[in-house]
Amino acid sequence: MDVVPIPQLADNYAYLLVDPATATAGVVDCADAGPVLAEVRRRGVRLVAVLATHHHFDHVGGNQDLVAALPGLQVFGSAAEASRIPGITRPVRDGDPVAVGELRGRVILIPAHTSGHIAYHFPTERVLFTGDTLFAGGCGRLFEGDAAQMMDSLGRLTALPDETRVYCGHEYTEKNLRFAAMLEPGNRRLREKREAVEALRREGKPTVPSTIGEEKATYPFLRIDSPELAASVRERVPRVRVEDPVAVFAALRGLKDNF
Ligand SMILES: [Zn+2]
Question: Which CATH architecture has domain 2-257?
């Protein structure tokens, strides 16, 4: 599988996933059809599927234009958000299969940012599309769920093999890692990752993909058992019950929302 990040709007990514064996492609999330169709033409592939992660306009705003340009296009999206996903033809639930050419993926339900948010996992390719749930160094805001639900959803993703490549919905990595470094300045892996990310951004390059292993080593919300991190949170939110992981997670989310 080739995965091509296509910048959208201010800081979104659509991802063209290409099956070279059949010259077919799918697109994960599309805010703006123009750049996606241009990439499809440039590569000479046939776009057969849209894989929507959740209903926010900056992830599905281009669906109608794609369907108008390519009649018969399949639009996959969460059955729980079907009424909010334009052009949906294939409502899917947790564990359902998806196919792009000969590539085989499956749906993982990861609610909290939105109530029916899903990820697409391609196990053979070790590729995961996480939308606005797991970012490189961050997670989405809790618009339609709570901290406990987000922890469960992140837990389903971090249970995947460490080498799984993570393609997320936004280029937020630099700011996310600035927040992480404030809380865990002694984390060597974090320092190294931050240097690499800053170098990429200086060259205007995407910081995706990350990997599940990198996220477990650097992302504060997945590092609640780090003593340095717990001390940093307690210093900023003195009343937090550090023995309760959900309370620490909620405190982190509050700190990040105001960072
Ligand atoms: Zn969103």
Answer: 4-Layer Sandwich (3.60)
